[in-house]
TrEMBL record:
It comes from the Bacteria. Substrate binds at R343. One of its GO terms (biological process) is antibiotic biosynthetic process. PANTHER family: ALANINE--GLYOXYLATE AMINOTRANSFERASE, AMINOTRANSFERASE CLASS V. Belongs to the class-V pyridoxal-phosphate-dependent aminotransferase family. One of its GO terms (molecular function) is alanine-glyoxylate transaminase activity. Keywords: Aminotransferase, Antibiotic biosynthesis, Pyridoxal phosphate, Transferase. It holds the Pfam family Aminotran_5. The lineage of its organism: Bacteria, Bacillati, Actinomycetota, Actinomycetes, Pseudonocardiales. Residues 13-320 form the Aminotransferase class V domain. It comes from Amycolatopsis albispora. This is Tritium exchange subunit. Heterodimer of a large and a small subunit.
């Protein structure tokens, strides 16, 4: 690799750019994870992580990526053969339901076009038809990172309540936590799954389950095999600020600093910042004459925007050119969207000028790749930022 001056633009929708102060915090010496200094850190983090999830209940932390927290949510609450209702909102929802099948659950996978979120009306229909309450959980990916579509969790919850159905609500917030408004308690979510590498502005390697009382009760009778993911020893050790195994201490230093940054800005401001950058990005996409993948304006994502390229254009070639010429990484189209879209991550440690740089790179890249666009996108986004 030749030397590239200046900072790399990491504008994939996670992992995101890690702030310097978080990097510095993580460079402190690793301490004894069974000693008193660690217990203090552990207790502080286990308390201070809760507001990001919008909960006053327990949040467990795993030294694992988001996929592990997906598994934890399923194995702690469900039993072999249980039915779960899942929605094909995109690549990650598809992977989660595949995992559920692999674990021995029976999945009702509602097909989708990868341009819409989970449909609350279908939730209502499916649960109303399930008079015997065979569906034990509804699993929804809050923000589909593969499509830039955000499902309406309060409406999904309302549909479940209207049906009077006792299923648990399991929600993946891996690319929405700390970026898009989210309220575990208020929205009646039973398990919220998340990860460190997106809105929390940390490297990958930490993941989370926020757990409702109903989910804790379900764990008492759930029979899927579990060991590493078992909430019980975790919650017991957490009482004293410890973990049942070796935690990733330096990532926890980073988490402490990342939470400090999020709370210093204020979560409502963090969410508004993301929504504003997302709106400016959509203004750019439309001014280029391109199409935003998400089709429902109620479901626009604050953390990323997926852009459809014209027929005959290979989005991966455009991304490769942008990486080569401008040292910027953009998200690839995943699964059935491979080559058809690119994804602009605008989440985490990100401001107006990061957006201006990002969109400039995209505009120059599209032009150099010969994609027929109007070169007005950057100007449209800047106008939006000035006026809003
Ligand atoms: N769910 C969503 C919405 C994601 O975006 C990702 C990763 O990007 C995952 C799950 C999987 O998480 P991980 O790659 O951290 O295991």
């Amino acid at each position: 690799m030749t030397y590239a001056a200046g900072r790399h633009f990491l504008q994939i929708p996670g992992p995101t750019n890690v702030p310097d102060s978080v990097l510095r915090a993580m460079s402190a010496a690793t301490i004894d994870h069974r000693g008193p200094e660690f217990a203090e850190l552990g207790l502080e983090l286990l308390r201070d992580i809760r507001p990001v999830f919008g909960t006053t209940g327990p949040v467990v932390l795993y030294p694992a990526t988001g996929t592990g927290a997906w598994e934890a949510a399923l194995v702690n609450t469900l039993s072999p053969g249980d039915r779960v209702l899942c929605f094909e909102t995109g690549h990650f929802a598809t992977l989660w339901q595949e995992m559920a099948r692999g674990l021995g659950l029976e999945v009702d996978f509602v097909p989708g076009d990868w341009r819409h979120g989970a449909n609350p009306e279908v939730v209502a229909e499916k649960l109303a038809a399930d008079r015997a309450y065979t569906i034990k959980a509804v699993c929804v990916v809050h923000n589909e990172t593969s499509t830039g579509v955000t499902s309406r969790i309060p409406e999904v919850r309302a549909a479940m309540d209207a049906a009077g159905h006792p299923a648990l609500l399991l929600v993946d917030t891996i690319s929405s936590l700390g970026s898009i408004d989210y309220r575990h308690d208020e929205w009646g979510v039973d398990v919220t799954v998340s990860g460190s590498q997106k809105g929390l502005m940390l490297p990958p390697g930490l993941s989370f389950n926020a757990i409702s009382e109903k989910a804790l009760a379900a764990a008492e009778t759930a029979r899927l095999p579990r060991s590493f993911w078992d909430w019980k020893p975790m919650l017991a050790a957490n009482q004293r600020g410890f973990f049942p195994y070796t935690p990733n201490t330096n990532l926890l230093y980073g988490l402490k600093e990342a939470l400090r940054l999020l709370y210093a800005e204020g979560l409502p401001n963090v969410f508004a910042r993301h929504a504003r950058h997302a709106a400016a990005t959509r203004a750019a996409v439309r001014a280029w004459g391109l199409e935003v993948l998400c089709l429902d304006e109620r479901e626009y994502s604050g953390s990323l925007t997926a852009v459809l390229v014209p027929d005959g254009v290979d989005a991966d070639k455009v991304r490769a050119l942008i990486l080569d010429r401008f040292d910027m990484s953009l998200g690839a189209g995943l699964g059935k969207l491979a080559g058809r879209i690119f994804r602009i991550g605008h989440l985490g440690a990100f401001n107006d000028l990061t957006l201006a740089g990002t969109l400039s790179g995209v505009q120059m890249g599209l032009t150099l790749a010969g994609v027929p666009i109007e070169p007005r996108g950057v100007a449209a986004a800047l106008e939006y930022l000035q006026d809003n």
